[in-house]
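new request in #modeling-help
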Amino acid sequence: MSKLRFRISVSLDGFVAGPSQSVQQPLGIGGEQLHEWVVALEIWRRAHGKKDGEVNVSTAVVEQELANIGATIMGRNMFGGHPGPWSDTDPWNGWWGRNPPFHHPVFVLTHHAREPLMMEGGTSFTFVTDGIESALEQARRAAGGQDVALAGGARAAQQYLNAGLVDEMQLHLVPTLLGGGERLFDNVGDLHGLGLVETVAAPNVTHLKFASISE
Amino acid sequence: MSKLRFRISVSLDGFVAGPSQSVQQPLGIGGEQLHEWVVALEIWRRAHGKKDGEVNVSTAVVEQELANIGATIMGRNMFGGHPGPWSDTDPWNGWWGRNPPFHHPVFVLTHHAREPLMMEGGTSFTFVTDGIESALEQARRAAGGQDVALAGGARAAQQYLNAGLVDEMQLHLVPTLLGGGERLFDNVGDLHGLGLVETVAAPNVTHLKFASISE
């Protein structure tokens, strides 16, 4: 069966966003530090229509992360921080612009129903209101045999981790402190059989890959 | 000047001890998992008068950690979890037994004055009641040009980190969740110029070394 592969950048003190998150500051105070390692990469810049950028050991990690992904699941805040309820005339289509970098179906966990959005470049956003298992089932179907990415945020991740539904977890550990914000592992406490299988040291980040291990 | 070198084992969710710490269970529920990587090592077992044990990439990390240390600073809980106040007739000499594994002067941060303890094998415990800077000054003097180890626990570490007095920080990141307990970086939020300088992947642990870096 296709795997559910979760990946996220997290600070040394366990936050995936800094304090005082808002629509104006979606990553909270200092939260951009979590993504400096990736936005500097040539592979990331190319995917976002930009030139130049670095090639280093993180490049292969990102390549592997993007490979064989046929659909993505994300929480509502990651889609766009809109408080909802949606309306069909709502101009708000998330953070991601007209041509989002996914190029495959994206399933957004929300309590507010909304018609799917078809974007340029092959990305669609489908809004799922009946829970994480329904979203995973729809995403697996849409992925057509490929894997499903779980892109965050923290609350979506916590739900899938606690349900034991995550097959692979790639943490991008950024060696900085945020001092507050959204904690990745709040109310988790159990990795449900996921164990560390690979560590990659890279500039400004340590990549820690977890997968199901025999107990 | 001699360096203050902090080292501690920490869970993936940022705890240095599990929930429900007590004199009976000083590391809290599940906290022993944080030390499984080290107690399995031949170098650790030998230092504690035991035979056999593993040799792996963590061995060199532990060797470096022990090298050139002339004194150790620790918090009261790490000395022995005694609620205090001490008394000279108190039979309680901490967790460490008659021949503790330090073999050099140890300075214990406490609010309760007590006469120094001279143990077998060259370890002494001196109880410091006038704060972290005094303890560091006394430890540096006792270390005779060698470095000073800061052994924990979390509260002692937080005080030294917030004062910007830590020159080196070695985190032994254990890929497990404790779900609660004593958080290493509570109320810190700033590494005061410490940056990641070395990552070592080892069985059941990832060693992350931080040192002062030019900004």
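bot summary: Chain A has six helices and eleven strands.
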